Amino acid sequence: MSTAVRQPFLRKKTEAVSESLSAAERVAWLPADRRLVVIQRNPTSGSGRVSRQLRVLIHELRAAGMAVRLFASRDRFDRFVRSSAVADSLRCLVAAGGDGTVSGLAHRHSDLPIATLPMGTENLVARHLRMPACGATVAQRIVDGAIRKFDTALINGQRFLLMASVGVDADVVRRVHAVRHGNIRHWTYVKPIVQSFLGYEYPSLSVHASDGALLGEGSHVIVTNMPEYGFRIPFCPLANPHDGLLDVRIFHQTGRLATIPHALRTRLGFADRRAEVTRLLVSEAEIRSSLPATASQCDGDPAPNCPVRISIDPASLTLIVAAR
Q: Among residues 155, 86, 85, 143, which one has the least CA distance to residue 296?
């Protein structure tokens, strides 16, 4: 049964609120005459129930007078989006998938507005945006057209939205994707976590400023733009995707017996012990490893091996948000 998409949200209250915010956080609006929505669907994401929400999204958008194009092929999607024929009518892109789908669109099309239909395992970007896995809700927000600018970051030129890391979690990501077939579920991580727990070598990691100066050393480095992290572990709860800075956490404890207790304490909300963690706010940093081919990851996908240079790209991405 269809839920009718309302006409665009009344803007007076939202515009009044946005006037008190910084320029980076202020809500803006998509032009009303842009009516084309192009969806990139990740064919390996989403259960049957979640996949049905994609059909709901398309139905509700068309009922609201939007033109909709759906692509599973990334190459065909990119060719269509970059064609001159759609330049004047494109309203937004939609990432129908998990965080990797969102990051992929942000990397390839950071100049275009993006909405999210969460269909992955963690859906951390959607969680930050409070975007449910509901096709009718996502359609309504696209019709409303409220948008905000967000910082993104680059790791050796690869764009990401959430976070990047070097450490045992990056080793887990590497192992998961080495054997991935189809959808990833939480249980998919169990064997790779055990393998990394038993086999990870915990190299010495060093973090350096853009001029090469040493900022800190440890066994695990997390560089965060948005505060969400997998399994709801709040490693960097103060990270702000509107401040033009990266939140860097350098964990000093080494070895299996230190890793699990620290993760559990963090998951339970206990504050970091100063002796265990160094926190930095930087616009750019380089992470080096004492061992060759040390893995890194960003937004839950494999990223280049160390050394890696990570930099912030302020207010570089436009995302569809809830009209307030």
A: 155
What DSSP string runs through 243-293?
Answer: SS-EEEEEE---SHHHHHHHHHHHHTTPPPPTTTEEEEEESEEEEEESSTT
d(CA 12, CA 311): 37
Task: Quote the Cα angle for 41-43-44, to 5°.
Answer: 125
At residue 163, the pLDDT reads 93
Radius of gyration of the chain (CA): 20
Nearest to residue 69, comparing CAs of 45, 116, 35? 35
Q: Report the 10 Å Cβ neighbour count for 186.
A: 10
| Residue 322 burial (10 A CB sphere; 0-12, 13-18, 19+) | middle
pLDDT block averages, 10 residues each, the chain of length 324 = 51 43 76 97 69 95 98 96 93 94 94 95 91 96 98 96 93 84 65 84 95 95 89 78 96 70 58 75 97 93 96 98 87
